[in-house]
Structures are given as structure tokens and as C-alpha cells.
Amino acid sequence: xxxxxxxxxxxxxxGGSLRLSxxxxxxxxxxxxxxxxxxxxxKGLEWVSIIYSDGSTYYADSVKGRFTISRDNSKNTLYxxxxxxxxxxxxxxxxxxxxxxxxxxxxxWGQGTPVTVSS
Amino acid sequence: xxxxxxxxxxxxxxxxxxxSISCRSSQSLVYxxxxxxxxxxxxxxxxSPQLLIYLGSYRASGVPDRFSGRGSxxxxxxxxxxxxxxxxxxxxxxxxxxTPVTFGQGTRLEIK
Lengths: 119, 112
Known about the structure:
The complex is a heterodimer of chains A (about 120) and B (about 110). Chain A has about 120 residues and is mostly beta strands.
């Protein structure tokens, strides 16, 4: 059974850093494209970043240069390193798996981890 | 970025009745072989989004056949033939043609 379990969300001050984790089971994360998607009451669902099977990565303009997506194949875990955090980064962060053969058809989602950026 | 616009934003429905949600994109989502890169997701209360429809009209695994997606180009529709109580939640369309992928603002379906 495919499962995605996020962790690492916290209350953090503006300018701080946080690393989110997404532990996967039931499949190998290096075989599928993996994304981070965040959700806020005000802006709804917003795609954040993707890592392809070959390791290439892409980011939303709103996080480019501040966030880094990566994976540890030995731990079958996806990460999102978030630096220079801003109030507008406050959201629930989901990791999502893309259906095999597709970049952005998200067939499995984690339960989400909340990030609050506030002083 | 491609802008996705859904309507209505709120949809009260009587159980057993049909429901329809519209999604419009700011540019055509047609790509190869006539496929449209448009997906539909449902977020039930307290849960993560779940995939319902991909490539405009393909039902995801385990999705009941009362859900159907249609449309092409810039205009798409999600139809529920007979609404059940378990269908409540927020429905989102998402364009997957261009990075960054973008979502509609969501349509909240509630039972009358």
C-alpha cells in the first residue's frame, strides 16, 4: 500500500529555516516524480516544487532561491529545505506522488504538515 | 501562469440529484493526441486532496463511475450523475500543461 507521511512542520520566526520530510512506503520515490504542494485559506492550493526521477528540480517563483527539494533514496524519503521563511509561507505542506508516466497527476498525497511563520 | 477559474464556488445539492462544476483556463490545455492536461481533485473535510479525474476525462483508480469529466481546450466540466452524502467537500481543477501547475479556487459541494 502506498503511503506518504510528512513531518517537520513547526512554528518558526520570519527569516528562519525548516526542513520538511516525507517518508514514503509501498513504492520507490526515485521511480516517480514527487512534488510539494501547499495550502492556505487565502490562496488555496499552490504547487511548490518537483523533483524528477533524474534528480532535476523545478520551483515556483515564490520560493525559488529559498526552498530546496531533495530526496534520500536509501531512506525512501523526500525533503523540502525551507530557508529565509516569510509570513506568506505559512501553510499546510503536502508531499504528492505523480502517477507513473506523468509529471503532475498527483495520485497519492500525504496528510500534510503545518508550517506557521510568525514572530 | 495559467489562471484557472471555477464556478460555482458553492454548490448545494439534494442527494440523488446531479451536479456539475465548471472550470475555465486562461489558455488552451490541449497537448499531445488531443489530450487536455486538466485534472480534478476532491478534498473531503479534514482530508488531503484525492485524485478524481486526469487528462480531462480519465477516472482515477477506485473512483465511482458517477463521476465524469469532459471538455477540451479551455472549458471543462466535472459531472456527478447522482450525488451521495460522501461526495461533500471541495472540488478543485488543476492544469498540468505548464509549470507552475495551477489550481482553481475550489467549489464547495454541500448536501441540502
